[in-house]
Amino acid sequence: MARIVERHRVIRDLLRALRTKRFLILAGISGTGKTQLARRLAASITAVDRVDGNGRGFARVEEALDRAVAGEPNFLFEPIPGHPDHVHVVDVGSGGEHARADALFDRRVGFVPVRPDWTDSKRVLGYYNPLTGRYYPTDVLVVLLNAWREFAEHGDEAGSHFIVLDEMNLARVEYYLADLLSLMESGASVDPDHPDRVRLGELARVHPLDTLVVSQGTRGVHDQRSEAEAQAAFANVDTGGKRVMGAARTGTLEQLVPLRELDERRFVYEALVRGQEFITRPKQPLPPIDPVRHALALLYPIPPRIAFPPNVTLIGTINVDETTHGLSPKVLDRAFVLEFSEVSYAAALGSHPEFSSVGPHLEALHAALEPSTLHFGYRVAHEILEYVAGAPTAPLAESMDFLLTSKVLPKLRGPESTLGEAVSALLNYTRAHGLPRAERKLVAMQRQLEHHGYASFF
After folding, report:
1. Class assignment of domain 5-221+258-337?
2. What predicted TM-score, i.e. pTM, was given to this entire model?
């Protein structure tokens, strides 16, 4: 697929919106690159934070955008010759020093496709299974906990973390995202009167126990730990009549983690275990997590509560059609909304070897469909170009006849007020370029509009 291209003003608006409120919804027609833009900007900002280590990723990325607009390419953006209003957003996730895969305990970007059956927060945060004694976290919860740990250590200089919800309105947002929407309003913050303290803000429960739970692997109370300590830690847990130390190695208890095992990071999780209002930040930087020495990091402790730190950014993408739900005022009041409906095939796909011959057809189709907001995005345009490139011996008219019938017309459906002008314009296009198969289908759809006031491809 072609690299994502956007107007630089759109990216600038996006960055400034996120610096104001870290909840953004990208809306618009399918195939305009909303998801890829969100993923690539998240990867770019976290890559800059990882290198600089000062939480200034947003500012640095905007500086890189200014350089690209001035014609200077960089590892985040590239100018497009002949299209000064557009820039390529480089995919830093393709490899290299800035984009190595994050370990579980260092993950900064969580990408989650939303499913239509999401009705509660378990789909977003994960769930605790009392039969196995394990918690099964999602990428969202892992990113939240990583962001909290970094914010508790570094305060306002903590690096950015991103949660990207793809097609977030396939389910009702106010149902499955209720906990996070509430946390956003009273999230964690640095105490202005005592910069060495962090205020936790509102907390949300993720499991019913009052201790840490291991998310994977086997971890428990070992024989060298005193039975008194184990009894105190797990006094409220039903052991089924077994002695605590025996039950610690089988069943639920083997997955519980005493706070003393958290080494120098105990204070980070203890605040979430005990539901404290404030915690004091460490005076000295903590050493980085060593995946060999910190066995617990590989198992990943899940506290009973979570906070929403200000270094977490939530980006959702939505399509608006009959398969999706509308967004409630509760959601819209908490977010910025950017609409993506404009496309520039020349800027995004002009370097494709077939664009010189296919480009005029794409522009003609766009002119016919755009007034009714039925035009297609870069995904469909790229597939059209690839099809033509893969059939070099076929006449272009024959290829366009098939492509119009198989890629463009099937999505057309609606009342006469929506389809009337578009169908007429497409008919003129097919007759002008000799596309008989598409013309026959459009004539049939036009008859449906005349007789029933509604038409569809099928």
Report:
1. alpha beta
2. 0.86
Q: How confident is the model at residue 14 (pLDDT cuts 50, 70, 90)?
A: very high
Q: What rounded mean pLDDT belongs to the chain?
A: 85
Position 93 confidence tier, pLDDT thresholds 50, 70, 90: low
| pLDDT value at 363 more than 60 | yes
The arithmetic mean of pLDDT across residues 144-164, rounded, is 92
pLDDT of residue 12: 93
pLDDT, tens digit, 9 for 90 and up, residues 19-71: 898 999 999 888 888 999 999 999 999 988 888 877 888 999 999 999 999 99
pLDDT tens digits, one per residue of 238-286: 555 555 444 444 444 556 676 766 777 788 888 999 999 999 988 887 8
Average pLDDT over residues 101-124: 87
Q: Comparing C-alpha atoms, which of 328, 311, 279, 310 is closest to residue 186?
A: 310
Query: In 10 A of CB 243, how many CB atoms?
Result: 11
Closest CA to 368 of 419, 441, 434, 436: 419
Cα separations in angstroms, 456 against 224, 321, 374:
72, 15, 13
What type of residue is 457? Answer: F
Angle at 53 between CA 51 and CA 59, to 5 degrees: 85
User: Are 177 and 23 within 8 A, CB to CB?
Assistant: no
Distance CA 44, CA 42 (A): 5
C-alpha–C-alpha distance, residues 33 and 5, integer Å: 8
